[in-house]
Amino acid sequence: MEEEYEALLQFLYLVPVGVVQFAPDGTIGMLNPLCAQLLMPLSSHGGLDNLFDALEQVAPELRNMANNFMATHGTICEGQRVQLSAGIPGKMDARMLSVSLFRLDGKRLMAVITDITQVVKRERQLKQSEAWFNAVLTGVTDYALMSLDKSGRVEAWNQSIARVTGHTERTVTGCELTLFFSPGSITSDRVADRLREADANGWSLDNGWCVRADGSRFWANTMIAPLARDDDMPEEEKGYALIVRDITDKREAGDSVMRASACDFLTGIANRRTFFEAAELELERWRRFPRPLSLIAIDADFFKNINDTWGHAAGDDVLRNLALTLAANVREIDVVARMGGEEFAALLPSTDLDGALRLAERFRVAVEGQRVRSGNDEIGYTVSIGVASMGPGITGVDQLMKLADRSLYAAKKAGRNCIRHQHADHPLPALQAAAPEPASD
Ligand SMILES: Nc1nc2c(ncn2[C@@H]2O[C@H](COP(=O)(O)OP(=O)(O)OP(=O)(O)O)[C@@H](O)[C@H]2O)c(=O)[nH]1
């Protein structure tokens, strides 16, 4: 028996994945060194006592999945992706873990944890190339092809545009590319970005909602590629080809799978991982061509009291209401996400500090002015909000998030139900300082 135990310990020590055994409430009984190493960045006090507590901020859904698993033993989830950090494009990859949970019996659960940072990076690269080939090689009947001038205005017309978008030559020629996108899903900055991206990489690919002439929407894959030109051709004659493909069917087919991994299980809005992925992309664009970019951190006030007074289910109703309220007040191009617990965030491309403050006030007023119906109760609540805007000293998403969090902390200290902000003009010294009273306003 002792020998078997020795062999098990040796196995756990050497196995190239993190293994942790824990109780149904998350209390850790045993974990191997690799697991401790993988989870240590999540520890708030230098120790690891409870797996669910450690993962609360990055994967709150795991506790829920384990609690809702009714069988006496079996697989609770397999390969659940958990984003640990946002990463810095070009310098540091976003750290990603894969977590599988198993129930062994009534008292013991086990998690197997692997670092999949590199796998995810390669997946992203592959997805990009695959989408490009699909766009080029398939669907000869479901695409519209047009040429754009150097600023992205439609230059040449053909029948495929009418087939896919319902537009006529008269309504399209000379118009900006934004004509094909639903309002709020694209800005002039984004069009300029895509043209530059096409210049730099040979193409720019994106998926999103487009609109037809009659106002109906379709989910489209759009690719912009620079037109071939001689080196001695004048800059004015530069142009692009735009291919728009209606892929509504494909989106619907992959929708439920996509939603499960990209959305928060409770509220249905983007989860923390999706938020950081979008924020990383936006920062990458900002780095190439700086323009306004803001981030809003939102936190429900006295949320523990709501749970304690009306119950956990009512608390969940409040969180769902908060998610809906935030989502109803932003443009399509913005990303609203639940970051964990009662914390939410909104990423606002092409939005300066003033614009972000106006939106933050709209959030605050909208929440304050409503009641959440939960069973027979009507619950009123408020939010505190921190706003941060991008500046030259910021090098990564984490830093912008920290700035917004510090403003949020200042709003809490100022009495809650209010907004505080910081502009990242000289953020680094302040961020590196040893947590002084946060400066704001
Ligand atoms: N109902 C519900 N509660 C949650 C969820 N996630 C976290 N919580 C609870 O949210 C509460 C957050 O409490 P605190 O961090 O003390 O914050 P607070 O009470 O909102 O106080 P302030 O933020 O300082 O205004 C905790 O009691 C958590 O258990 C969830 O998914 N559903």
UniProtKB/TrEMBL annotation:
**What SUPFAM superfamilies does the database record attribute to this sequence?**
Nucleotide cyclase, PYP-like sensor domain (PAS domain)
Name the coiled-coil region(s): none
- List the SMART domains: GGDEF
Q: Where is the PAS domain?
A: 129-174
Q: Which domain of life is it from?
A: Bacteria
Where do the GGDEF domain residues begin and end? Answer: 291-424
Which Pfam families does the UniProt record give?
GGDEF, PAS_9
What this protein is called in its record is PAS domain S-box-containing protein/diguanylate cyclase (GGDEF) domain-containing protein
Q: In which organism is this protein found?
A: Noviherbaspirillum suwonense
